[in-house]
Design goal:
Strand content: 25-35%
Structural class: alpha+beta
Distance between the termini: 63 Å
Number of helices: 6
Strand order of the largest sheet: 1-2-3-4-5
Order of helices and strands: HHHHHHEEEEE
Radius of gyration: 20 Å
């Protein structure tokens, strides 16, 4: 009887380990997406263009550099460019909702809609400073 009892106790432990392993494979969650957006806007508010650019998808950073003709940190914070809008939105960038679908996420703040994509075990910002336009695609300050 003791053998049977031990097997019963082990089954829940095995199930818990399988669930933990599966969760680890699932990748970053909604809380991680929220954290990336919070860190992005904190970096913008602090004027830390390097930190903010490090959270962008490489393609979004490259597109920004090409469009603005200056390095990402300067282009991102330039008040005459995206920095004007992003700087204003940073003060009210409190996350209100996170929507996740597979390897994509949308984070709604009090002042912005931010789009992210899964990159390894984290999220990267693919578009920020976005305004809805009804049935048309969002209009974003920075996007890939």
């Amino acid at each position: 009887m003791n053998t049977r009892r031990r097997r019963r106790l082990r089954a829940p432990a095995v199930a818990a380990l399988v669930a933990a392993a599966a969760a680890g494979c699932a990748g970053p969650g909604a809380g991680d997406a929220q954290d990336v957006v919070t860190r992005f806007y904190a970096a913008v508010a602090e004027g830390d263009g390097d930190a903010a650019c490090s959270l962008l998808l490489a393609g979004a950073a490259a597109d920004l550099v090409e469009e603005e003709q200056e390095p990402c940190p300067e282009a991102l914070l330039d008040p005459a460019g995206p920095g004007g809008v992003l700087g204003e939105r940073a003060a009210a960038a409190t996350v209100e909702a996170v929507h996740r679908a597979g390897s994509q996420a949308q984070v709604l703040t009090a002042s912005d809609t931010v789009f992210l994509a899964r990159s390894g075990d984290t999220w990267v910002v693919t578009a920020v400073g976005c305004d809805p336009r009804g049935e048309r695609p969002y209009d974003c300050e920075v996007e890939s």
